[in-house]
Design brief:
mainly alpha
């Protein structure tokens, strides 16, 4: 288990390092410290398909690690006769539900299409677009 978590963590670090390097190159604001805010549509448009896929793989890997850690914590609590505590964020739960059977290439295409249809919003962070424009509407439609 430890090896798989370390492998997933390494994959996440590598994927985010690749994207952060591109974000740093194209960021005009020297003081922007939050990598999520730096990875905007302007950066996304300049990012290669393989780096977009690596970014999404990193997000998916982080969510997967959180899911399995959460499951182990809940299992341990249940065995101890305590009420399990679920710590997955709405983003993590939403991603898992909205993109359950969606391939990374499809997510890339959806993000590409959103920015193409909204060229004045290229300063908007990619994860904001993924949450508000892709995940939230899919969750609302599923209700």
């Amino acid at each position: 288990m430890k090896k798989s978590i370390l492998s997933l963590g390494l994959a996440l670090v590598l994927a985010l390092a690749c994207v952060n390097a591109q974000a740093a190159e194209s960021s005009d604001a020297a003081g922007m410290g939050n990598p999520v805010d730096q990875f905007t549509g302007a950066v996304w448009e300049k990012t290669t398909e393989s780096n977009k896929a690596a970014f999404l793989f990193g997000v998916e890997s982080a969510i997967t690690v959180e899911y399995f850690v959460n499951a182990k914590v809940a299992e341990k609590a249940a065995k101890a006769g305590k009420r399990p505590v679920y710590t997955l964020s709405p983003f993590e739960k939403g991603w898992m539900k909205a993109f359950k059977d969606v391939k990374r290439a499809e997510i890339i295409k959806m993000v590409d299409e959103w920015y193409a249809a909204n060229p004045k919003s290229l300063d908007r962070p990619v994860l904001s677009v993924i949450w508000y424009e892709l995940i939230a509407p899919r969750l609302a439609a599923a209700k």
